[in-house]
Write a structure and sequence with these properties.
The structure holds two protein chains of two kinds.
Chain A: H1 3-6, H2 10-14, H3 20-32, H4 34-54, H5 63-75, H6 89-112, H7 125-137, E1 146-148, H8 151-162, E2 176-186, E3 189-198, E4 201-208, E5 221-223, E6 226-233, E7 236-243, E8 246-252, H9 256-268, E9 283-285
Antiparallel strand pairs in A: 1-2, 1-9, 2-3, 3-4, 4-8, 5-6, 6-7, 7-8
Chain B: H1 2-16, H2 21-32, H3 35-51, H4 62-76, H5 100-108, H6 111-126, H7 130-142, H8 146-153, H9 157-175
Helix pairs in contact in B: 2-3, 2-4, 2-7, 3-4, 4-8, 6-9, 7-9, 8-9
């Protein structure tokens, strides 16, 4: 991919319309072209703004139930749809009051809860991590270096190859397990990549050397003394935090709640005990 | 027996159509520009979807199907539900590209400013010509693929891509100098 081919493919790239091979080619070009990377960041920011705007409006109170009532009524005969414009003045006053309360509540919520839907804190690595999550979890994506459910074996292997400690949770709940990992890169730096299954969805964890502070803005919430940040890129939810001088980025198409729960487990997981006598799990190199 | 059949149909309606009511409302709000109109549009869409529910062959396609109904109902009443007759102009937009740094600076401001930016993009979206507005709504609210959007809009996939590209160019242009220069949202010639 060269610059002439990259630019028209930007929208499909961010809209998840490219094949895995095309995504990899785009990413290959990004590694060598700062100008196109800047354009990508600009486009990704616009997408993030649109995504943030897209989830601003709550459903008017009573609309869902009203529809259901009318549908039930329609089962036994036609029922005219009351127009939302035909509310009485009193109803308007009541609705205005409710809207004001809802607006205040929304503002409070916006200030107090993680701002996953707001684009303000989207770091430059977000698009890259989201794209790699998608590529790595595609059935036809690049193979894992090591497929194993043994977290000790995987982290030891990755640490040897990336040259820094990797902390990752040992999942014990039903429906949650480690799949394997590989050496990757984020922002041109070596990264450890671990893939989990969480609630029937693939969950990616990237462990990266710390990036300059300016590249990870926006405080979200503090868990176990660690500041957690969130973002959403093209349908993929990202949660990231710094721990022991490493940047951890978890990505999934699942819910923010699931990712936060995973992050908490990761933060709480202490240094792995290499002498543990856990039974070794089956492993194969990919 | 008839009652059980109707109860089952209402349950299917809830599972296949009503689960999308939030996205339908958000889309309707951006099509009509007014909350009461959006409510009317969603209600009429849902009732029509319920009446035609037996025509829905593939439950997995329910969202595309109900958004097609939403669009059809909206277009039928487009003169009544018109978001705005002042559109962004496509002229003089060649080469418009907003540096990532400008976006970052905009987004790095405190939240009141962010709210203003989001309001700005909402207003700019409402002023998009309908074909471009539809594309933005389906992509960012519906979360549809190009293929699904082509199905809803009844146009080729290439047209979807072209409309999305142009819509985003227009929005970039509208946001180039946020707040300070509202005149960038110009009436169509």
């Amino acid at each position: 991919v060269n610059c002439q081919e990259f630019v028209p493919a930007l929208d499909p790239y961010l809209d998840d319309e490219l094949s895995v091979l095309e995504v990899l080619r785009m990413q290959g070009h990004l590694l060598v072209c700062d100008r196109c990377r800047t354009m990508l960041e600009s486009e990704a920011a616009l997408h993030a703004l649109l995504a943030a705007d897209a989830v601003q409006d709550d459903l008017p109170p009573g609309l869902r139930d009203g529809i259901l009532d009318r549908v039930r009524g329609a089962s036994s005969g036609p029922v005219p749809l009351p127009s939302a414009r035909r509310h009485s003045t009193a109803a308007h006053v009541l609705l205005a009051g409710l809207a004001l309360v809802a607006l205040v509540a929304l503002l409070l919520v916006a200030l107090l809860v993680p701002r996953v839907w707001r684009a303000g804190d989207m770091p430059p690595f977000a698009a890259e991590v989201a794209a790699k999550h998608r590529v790595y979890t595609e059935p036809s994506g690049p193979p894992l270096d090591l497929t194993t459910t043994d977290i000790q074996q995987l982290t030891a292997s990755l640490e040897r190859r990336v040259g820094f400690p990797v902390k990752a949770p040992r999942l014990v709940e039903s429906g949650q397990h480690l799949v394997g990992g590989r050496v990757s890169s984020v922002a041109d730096a070596p990264a450890a990549y671990l893939r989990y299954e969480w609630g029937g969805r693939p969950l990616s964890l990237f462990v990266i050397p710390p990036l300059p502070p300016a590249r990870a803005r926006g405080t979200e919430q503090v868990i176990e003394g660690v500041e957690l940040y969130t973002a959403r890129v093209s349908g993929i939810t990202l949660v990231w935090w710094e721990d022991a001088e490493r940047l951890y980025v978890a990505a999934s198409t699942g819910s923010l709640t699931d990712l936060e729960a995973f992050a908490v487990l990761c933060v709480r997981s202490g240094p792995l005990d290499r002498s543990s006598d856990d039974p070794p799990a089956a492993a194969r190199h990919g | 027996v008839g009652g059980e059949v109707e109860t089952a149909k209402v349950r299917r309606f809830e599972e296949r159509v009503l689960v999308h009511v939030h996205d339908l409302y958000r889309a309707a709000l951006r099509l009509t520009g007014q909350a009461p109109d959006a409510e009317d549009l969603v209600q009429e869409t849902c009732l029509r979807a319920f009446q035609a529910l037996d025509q829905l062959r593939h439950p997995g396609a329910a969202k595309v199907w109900v958004f097609s109904i939403l669009r059809s109902v909206f277009l039928r009443h487009a003169t009544r539900w018109s978001a705005d007759n002042t559109h962004l102009s496509l002229e003089d937009l060649e080469g418009v590209a907003l540096p990532a740094e400008v976006f970052r600076a905009m987004l790095a401001r405190p939240s009141p400013f962010q709210a203003a930016v989001l309001e700005e993009i909402r207003q700019a979206t409402l002023k998009l010509p309908l074909p471009y507005r539809e594309a933005i709504i389906l992509a960012h609210i519906g979360g549809f693929s190009y293929r699904e959007m082509a199905q809803i809009l009844e146009v080729p996939r290439g047209t979807v891509m072209s409309r999305l590209f142009r819509a985003r160019r227009l929005l970039r242009a509208a946001l180039r100098e946020p707040l300070a220069h509202p005149s960038r949202v110009e009436p169509a010639p």
